[in-house]
C-alpha cells in the first residue's frame, strides 16, 4: 500500500532571530508544526521559549526569518510589510493563552469569551454568545458561565481564557506556561482541558515546565537551549535517550518531578 502524501505544515518558521538591547535571544530557529500535532517546548529559563511563541504570531517582530501560517506569510501582505489591520487579521489565525488570565473583571465568563467574536469578528451578540457558551461547555465550565472572574478559581479562570481563544476559531493554539500562575492543586484541571483538546486534534504549541504533560500528551517535544532548538523528537526517544548534553543535564535536574 502506498502511504498518502504528507500534508504541508500548517505552521513553519525558518531562520527566526530576535535580540533585545543587543542581547541575542533567538539564534536561527527552524520549526514546522503539522495540522493536528501537539508540540511541547521545554528548556531552562532564558532559552528563548516564550520569545519564540511571541515571534510566531508577531507579538514580537522577528529581526530575521520567515513565518508561514496556513500558507500565508506573517507580517507580509503580498510583497509588502503588512499594516496593522492586516497583521491583526493574520494574528487571528492563532489562539494565544498566556501565563496570566487577563480576563475583564467586570464581565462574566460568557461575556469575556463572547467579546472577541463580537468586537473582532463582527458577530451579532446572539451568535457570539452561543459560540461562547459552546466553548465554555467544551472546557467543562457550563455551570459557571454567568459568574465574574472573582467567583472563579485560578484554574477556572485559565479555562475561560482557553475558551476565549477557541471562540476565535484559530488554526493553531499557542500556550505560554499556562499553569505557571496556578496553585498546585489547580494545575491538573487545566492540563486535563489541554489534554482533551489534543485528543480532539487541535494543533497546539505549548511552552511548559510540566514534564508529565510533555511526556504523555505531546506528539513531539522540542528542547531549546541558547536560543536554538537543540534537540527534538518523539517524547519516548527524547526523554529516555537524549543525545544533547544540555538536554541530559536539564532532565537530570528534573528527575524528582518528571
- String of helices and strands: EEEHEEEEHEHHHEHEHEEHH
Q: Kindly state the number of beta strands.
A: 12
Gross geometry: globular
Q: What integer value in Å does the Rg equal?
A: 19 Å
> Which strand-content bin applies to the residues?
15-25%
Strand order of the largest sheet: 8-9-10-3-11-12
Q: What's the main sheet like? A: 6 strands, mixed
The low-confidence parts are none
What is the helix tally?
9
Terminal Cα span? 40 Å
Mean pLDDT: 93
Helix content: 25-40%
Structural class: alpha/beta
Structure description:
With 258 residues, the chain is of the alpha/beta class. 36% of the residues lie in helices and 24% in strands. It is built from nine helices and twelve strands. It has a six-stranded mixed sheet, with helices on both faces. Strand 11 and strand 12 form a beta hairpin. Helix 3 crosses helix 4 and helix 3 runs parallel beside helix 5. The radius of gyration is 19 Å and the shape is globular. The mean pLDDT is 93.
Amino acid at each position: 500500500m502506498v502511504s498518502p502524501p504528507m500534508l504541508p505544515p500548517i505552521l513553519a518558521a525558518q531562520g527566526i532571530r530576535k535580540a533585545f538591547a543587543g542581547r541575542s535571544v533567538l539564534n536561527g530557529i527552524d520549526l514546522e508544526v503539522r495540522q493536528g500535532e501537539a508540540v511541547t517546548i521545554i528548556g531552562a529559563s532564558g532559552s528563548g521559549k516564550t520569545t519564540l511563541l511571541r515571534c510566531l504570531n508577531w507579538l514580537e517582530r522577528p529581526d530575521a526569518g520567515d513565518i508561514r501560517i496556513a500558507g500565508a506569510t506573517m507580517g507580509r501582505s503580498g510583497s509588502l510589510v503588512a499594516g496593522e489591520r492586516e497583521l491583526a487579521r493574520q494574528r487571528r489565525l492563532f489562539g494565544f493563552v498566556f501565563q496570566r488570565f487577563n480576563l475583564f473583571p467586570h464581565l462574566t465568563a460568557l461575556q469575556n469569551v463572547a467579546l472577541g467574536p463580537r468586537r473582532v469578528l463582527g458577530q451579532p451578540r446572539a451568535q457570539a454568545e452561543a459560540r461562547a457558551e459552546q466553548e465554555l461547555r467544551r472546557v467543562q465550565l457550563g455551570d459557571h458561565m454567568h459568574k465574574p472572574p472573582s467567583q472563579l478559581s485560578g484554574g477556572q479562570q485559565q479555562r475561560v481564557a482557553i475558551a476565549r481563544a477557541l471562540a476565535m476559531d484559530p488554526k493553531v493554539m499557542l500556550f505560554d506556561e499556562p499553569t505557571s500562575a496556578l496553585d498546585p492543586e489547580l494545575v491538573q484541571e487545566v492540563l486535563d482541558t489541554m489534554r482533551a483538546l489534543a485528543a480532539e486534534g487541535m494543533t497546539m504549541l505549548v511552552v511548559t515546565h510540566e514534564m508529565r504533560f510533555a511526556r504523555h500528551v505531546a506528539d513531539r517535544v522540542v528542547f531549546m537551549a541558547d536560543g536554538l532548538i537543540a534537540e527534538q523528537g518523539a517524547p519516548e526517544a527524547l526523554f529516555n535517550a537524549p543525545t544533547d548534553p544540555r538536554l541530559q543535564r536539564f532532565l537530570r535536574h528534573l528527575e524528582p518531578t518528571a
